[in-house]
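Exercise: predict the fold of this chain.
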Amino acid sequence: MDETEVELPAGVDLLWGRRDRSRRGGPKPALTLERIVEAAIALADEGGLAALSMSRIAEKLGFTTMSLYRYVTSKKELLMLAFDAALEAPPEAEPGEDWRRALERWARANLDFYRRRRWLLDVPVSGLPPFPNQLRWLDRGLAALDGTRLTEAEKPSCILLLAMYVRSAAALLIDPARAAELAGESGAQPRAWGQTLRQLVDADRYPALSRSVDAGVFDDEPSDGDAGAEEEFEFGLRRVLDGIAVLEARGGSHVPSGSVGGA
């Protein structure tokens, strides 16, 4: 096995404590990387990624913008640090629970931090970043599959599939509220989706969709919107876990080499 040390992406060395955090000389003792990251998270919580800038962080902390660069090399690097810190810790395993129950709790906890910090959905994700907290979530998910008949190659593929489902479901749950705000509908009840579709969908152009509309599939009342979204999330979560259960019952099957990294 090749033991050659690979070069880490910018910022990853900071996340793992492998780089001197104040190497640019003489920062004021009152300023720390932890305080900078906390301020970045607070600004993003208040106003999303649009509110996050090096100058605003410096102003919030009472320092000059240049002083921040003694700790981080760029806003991109700081965003990486803030994203990982904002994830918090995954839920602890419960004694005696089976893999399915453990992954249900894992998925719901994952959805919860997206809801509390919507800006996390706006952070680009590509591949599997080597960040400490994200790897803790991956490790906890993999631990839930201990004792199953899945192969070591299949386990991370299943967890990444579940993570991608939760992220996409979170976007569907959260984005309608943001879209309403952009459309000037903040505080108003969302428009009835079923009624809207009845005006737009005709059987000739959208035959399959038209049958669903006519069957009243999209006719939930506005007041039931949150409950309906929750039901949709739970439905999708059950189907993903059903698929994993089928694979596990078969005793696993071959996953092509490199599939996890390309997910």
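Check your answer against the key: The radius of gyration is 22 Å.
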